[in-house]
Amino acid sequence: MSPKLSLSAIALAVSLASVGCAGANAANAGRVSDAERMRAGLGGQDAQTLAPQAFAAADQELRLAKEAQASGDSVGAELHAERALATYNQAIALARLSRATQEEAAANETLAKASEQAQKYASQRKAIDHEADDLEKKLRVAREAQLPPVSGPADPERERARAVAAQALVTQARLLCSAARLVSPQAPGVAEAESAVTNLEKQVASAKAVAIDPAARARAACLTSLTKARRTAGPDSDQADTLLGELSQAGGAAKGKSDLAPARDERGVVVTLRSAFKGDKLTPESEGSLKDLGRVGAAHPTFAVQVVMHDAQAPSAAEAAQNQKRGEAIVQALVAGGVPAAKVKVEQAGAKAPVVDPKDAKHRDRNSRVEIVFVSSGS
Fold it and tell me: What is the pLDDT along the chain (379 residues), one digit of tens a residue?
């Protein structure tokens, strides 16, 4: 090899090496610059405030990259610059996660407050609805108890209808006063109201027509006595509604049992039984229904039970005696279900409170029925 060629080759190699180093240094300087630009853009942002540890680690890598660059360590500068870029990106991801967690916590807190407010409003609405129901009940009782206006003269047919209605009102008055006694034996005003009812019943027994106005006043007086007795006993806290619901489910659920079809009236909760007897004895179906009623009544000891016997038409002396035996059979079935005998009272209404015209031979059998009344003791 000639000396001239050797010197040329060496010069070329040195030149190429210098160019390579310059390119590498430029590349390294570019990655450090990239890291510096990213650092400048993130200053004061979420990455710095929400991921301080990662951000500090990235700053450390950037500082090391600058130191390596200054000392001529291009490889170290590039490695530290890459690590700085990666750590800055990690800080950005951690900051986003932290921000999302904070927003989730704030949303959950808002949801909890909204749910609490909704429950509060629901509770207030329930209380308002309950108060409105109580006011409606009191208004209905007040309307029933209000003394009716004096009736004017009418034609003979209307007067006969009034006489039938008056007789029914007298019977209703007797049942209301009886219910008042069941709530409180010393119900306010019940003695005076019963005295007026007894006088009207004597008129009915003597075949005298009873005027509708005195009958209506007697009914209103007995209802007023019942209302006052309940006020003394205290509120019923919706026990009548609860009992009504339980009685609605007591019948019809089991095979062979009829639907009890309970209803509400001024006395309380009423269950009407038809065709309950075969002779003096209860039919098996009616006996089962009465025992069911006894079990429900035993679960609600604040209620007394009024048993009202209705006839299709005015009973004879023998039929009246038979009704007494039937009443005793009903009491026995209720007591067998669990109702205390002392809380059951039987009333004989005869045909004085018909649901259809007693003269209608085709339909008057519907007047024959037994009412089981769970007398509500609360207002």
Answer: 444 445 555 444 444 444 444 455 555 678 888 888 888 888 778 888 888 998 889 889 889 988 988 898 989 889 988 998 999 899 899 989 988 998 999 999 999 999 988 988 998 888 898 778 777 766 766 665 555 555 555 566 776 777 788 888 999 999 999 999 999 999 999 999 999 999 988 887 776 667 788 888 999 999 999 999 888 876 655 788 888 888 877 655 444 555 678 898 889 999 999 988 988 889 999 999 899 899 988 999 999 999 999 988 888 888 888 999 999 999 999 999 999 999 999 999 888 888 887 777 888 888 899 999 999 887 6
How far from chain centre, in Å, is Cα 231?
A: 26
240 within 8 A of 201, measured Cβ to Cβ: no
Residue 359 DSSP code: T
Cβ atoms of 351 and 358 within 8 Å: the answer is yes
Interacting residues of 346 by C-beta distance below 8 A, sequence separation 6+: 307, 308, 309, 327, 328, 330, 331
**Contact at 8 Å (CB) between 188 and 228?**
yes
Q: SS3 of 309, please? A: strand
Q: Euclidean distance between the first and final Cα of the chain, in Å?
A: 128
Cα-based angle 76, 79, 83 (whole degrees, multiple of 5): 135
Residue pair 212/165 in contact (Cβ under 8 Å)? The answer is yes
Distance CA 274, CA 369 (A): 5
Q: d(Cα 163, Cα 134) in Å, to the nearest integer?
A: 35
**What sign results for the dihedral spanned by CA atoms 239, 245, 248, 250?**
negative
What CA–CA distance (Å, rounded) separates 176 from 77? 104
Separation between Cα atoms, residue 163 and residue 180, nearest integer Å: 26
Name the token pair of 226.
């019942």
In this structure, how many other beta carbons lie within 10 angstroms of the beta carbon of residue 231? 12
* Cα–Cα distance for residue pair 131/118, rounded to 1 Å: 20
